[in-house]
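FAQ: What does the model actually see?

It sees only this:
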Amino acid sequence: MRGRQTFAVAAILVAAFMTASLAAAQTAQPKWYVLHQEIARPSMLKQYEDTTKEFVSLVRQHHDASPIFNYVAVAGDDFVYTYVAPISSFSDLEKIYGGFDALAKAVGEAKWGDLMMRGGAATEFNRESIVMEDSSMEYAPANPRLKPEEEKYLHVDLYYVQPGHEADADAVARDFAALFRKKNLPAGYRLFKVVMGSEMPLIIVTTPAKDAADYAATDAAMREALGAEGQALFQRAFALTRRFESHNGTIRPDLSLEPMQGK
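And it is asked to produce this:
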């Protein structure tokens, strides 16, 4: 994960949004994340992953420079690497951004600069967005079918909502969650709303699985269990959607930066 400048831009944007949405945030108690995405050059994939692992190693060695900085890495089938970093406030972004400067000094400007150069050469493009997770629009089963350590695969659905229909889309999302609870399904999902980024409004739904085959089997069983009510909800959702995409990826602990306990 690279790009100090993008974190600075994200800090400014999320500050404006959090200020404008303070009342709603206090009521719904949402969770906030930065999604930093990098598109790796296919011909330089090994260099991209090697430099990312170097970055993770350096941050671990000098974690005091940015003690709150942590993220989960997801490698997509399309060479898109997504780094999901939790934040609790605008001040977290300021601390993370400041931590990059402190990290560069701790590592050494020459060594840090060399790593950024090599990583940047293997990266075609990067983008960043801020997302909000609201538990009222997602479903967590009381007895989930998978243990956390079994969730190694991630299916992602992107609903690009028609502008002006955000409230309608929220209503559909809550109706989906209610139907899943009514059916008491064993597979859950998470829902994120992009609050700062390109092509808004955008809703992201993520479903974990063991692997691609496990997801396909679980998805088929889920749709059968939802029946006609589920089909009607999908029709409502697509009627509000200007574009729909699906992506798949693998959760990569070797590219992730876990929280440092006790720091």
